[in-house]
Amino acid sequence: MPTAANITVKKNDGTTDVVYTSVQPAGGPGVPAVWKNQTVGTTIGQQPELRCSSKESKSAGVNFSDVRFSYKFPRSVSNSTTGEITLTDGFSATCSVRINQVMLTADLNEAAAQFGHLMASALIKSVNQSGRSPI
User: Fold this and answer.
1) CA atoms 85, 91, 92, 97: torsion sign
2) What pLDDT, on a 0 to 100 scale, did the predictor assign at position 46?
3) Burial annotation 35-65 (CB, 10 A radius, 16+ → b, else e)
4) What is the residue extent of each domain of the chain?
5) Can you give the pLDDT at residue 60?
6) Mean pLDDT of the residues in the chain
7) Which one-letter DSSP state was computed for residue 31?
8) What are the Cα distances from residue 67, in Å, to 48, 96, 111, 134?
9) With contact defined as beta carbons under 8 Å apart, do 31 and 46 qualify?
């Protein structure tokens, strides 16, 4: 089982690091671990956030691990007259992963690595930045 830790990723410029700080480890099945980019904004609500939860399930006699990710990067607008900050939906994503618990370790490791690399690929980043699927 992984141990909660901070996650460092590159910003859009490809050079600058940004840290998502582990603010809450998972408290049990279905309870999410939470990371926040605490360098954004002046309030907690403005901070981008990643959540990850997992639980065991069974389907047709097969045991699975169901993992769910959710991510949000809020849009915040500051009223120049009052200084009040308004938060609205900005960018959000969810992802569900289902893992057969009797899958060979080598196959599972390969599938997880390839999926992670696909999500980090330049094409998928471009899809997320443009909001359009490739044509």
Assistant:
1) negative
2) 93
3) bbbeeebeeeebbbbbbbbbeeeeeeeeebe
4) 7-54+65-96
5) 87
6) 94
7) B
8) 20, 6, 14, 27
9) no
**Cross-strand bridge partners of residue 36:** 21, 49
Cα–Cα distance between 108 and 114 in angstroms, integer? 10
The residue among 33, 23, 22 whose CA lies nearest residue 55 is 33
Strand residue runs (E) in the chain: 7-10, 17-24, 33-36, 49-59, 62-78, 85-100
pLDDT in tens, 8-49: 999 999 999 999 999 999 999 999 999 999 999 888 999 999
> How far is residue 124's CA from residue 129's CA, in Å, rounded to a whole number?
9
Answer yes or no: are the C-beta atoms of 7 and 38 closer than 8 Å: no
pTM of the predicted model, to two decimals?
A: 0.89
Mean pLDDT of 116-124: 95
